[in-house]
Amino acid sequence: MTQTVPAPLPADFFPADCPVQSVPVLGSRKWAWRIVRCLEGGPRRFSELRVPLAGITAKVLAESLRSMEQDGAVVRTEYAENPPRVEYALTPLGRTLLGPMDAVCEWSRENLGSLLAARLEYERAER
Q: Locate the HTH hxlR-type domain: which residues (predicted)?
């Protein structure tokens, strides 16, 4: 029985017009997708975001929001009130993430059982 050896992966495997590394809002921030989901219904204050994002520190939330703002996915609006009020909202670009997120969630619902079974089988084989 002969096996076909696949060709080595070239250094330019990822084409320049598909810059996987430069799409930080999709993966470089652990909390980004959860933040997007929290902002789906409209603008929220920082303290409102901390409630469903149990486990996130204020520092990490601030860094994540800043990064998402830099990427153009979130807009920060300051209101000249006393006390000052700041809200965060999805931009039109940020809203384009909702469709792909829905697709990933649907895939997860459909395949979670198989994924967990595969992990369990792998762990049993490793022992």
A: 18-116
For residue range 66-87, list pLDDT tens digits in order: 989 998 999 999 999 898 899 9
Question: Is 26 among the domain residues?
Answer: yes
Phi, psi of 33 (to 5 degrees): -65, -35
Residue 110: phi and psi, rounded to 5, are -75, -30
Summarised one tens digit per residue, pLDDT across range 3-14 is 787 687 676 766
pTM summary value: 0.75
The half-sphere exposure of 114 on its side-chain side, counting CA atoms within 13 A, is 5
**Dihedral-angle region of residue 84 (phi above 0 means left; psi in -120 to 50 means alpha; beta otherwise):** beta
Number of domains in the chain: 1
